[in-house]
Amino acid sequence: MYRILETQSELEQHLLPILKQNGSEIPKPGCYVAAVEFDEQGKVLAYQMIQVAPFLEGLWARDKSAHLLAVYRLALKFCQERLGIDEPLTMTRKDETGNRIGRIANKLGFGQMEWNVFRRKPKCR
After folding, report:
1. 107-120, pLDDT tens digit by residue?
2. Which of 30, 39, 40, 100 is the residue whose CA sits 20 to 30 A from 80?
3. Mind listing the pLDDT tens digit for each residue in 22-76?
4. Where exactly are the structural domains of the chain?
5. In 3D, which of 69, 6, 64, 71 has the Cα closest to residue 36?
6. What separation in angstroms does the CA of 112 have from each of 12, 19, 27, 109, 118?
7. CA-to-CA separations, 82 to 70, 79, 107, 108, in angstroms, rounded
8. Phi and psi at residue 3, to the nearest 5°
9. What values do phi and psi take at 5, rounded to 5?
10. Rounded CA separation 47/11 (Å)
11. Taking a C-beta distance cutoff of 8 angstroms, is the pair 86, 53 a contact?
């Protein structure tokens, strides 16, 4: 049987024990849902979480007179106060510029995640 778990009580009942057992990161309540496959006994056989995780992207300046740290802090404050998210994500390209931006992100308190990120390519119409 397949279901989308949307309520926090369903997620806590079915998914939270598995996340804790596996040492997985547990999203904040209200920030995720999950597609779940159950076995015949009603136990979770497989799941795919769908998370709400804002990415801070596109930090750009025309020249060195810009105050990028102030712009970053404004965006972070919005995430915290309006969206309730304290740990937004950011990503950079795998090139020299991306690595430079990554070093700046580290200095701003971002920790580099040990992830491979893949994007599903849209079908051409």
Report:
1. 888 888 888 888 88
2. 100
3. 998 888 888 899 999 999 999 999 999 998 778 888 877 889 899 988 998 899 8
4. 2-51, 54-120
5. 6
6. 28, 21, 18, 10, 16
7. 18, 6, 24, 21
8. -150, 155
9. -95, 120
10. 11
11. no
Amino acid at 74: L
Strand partners, 89: 55
Phi/psi region, residue 6 (left: phi>0; alpha: psi -120 to 50; beta: rest), is alpha
Q: Is the pTM of this model over 0.85?
A: no
Q: Decide if 11 contacts 34 (C-beta within 8 A).
A: yes
Q: CB of 30 within 8 A of CB of 53? A: no
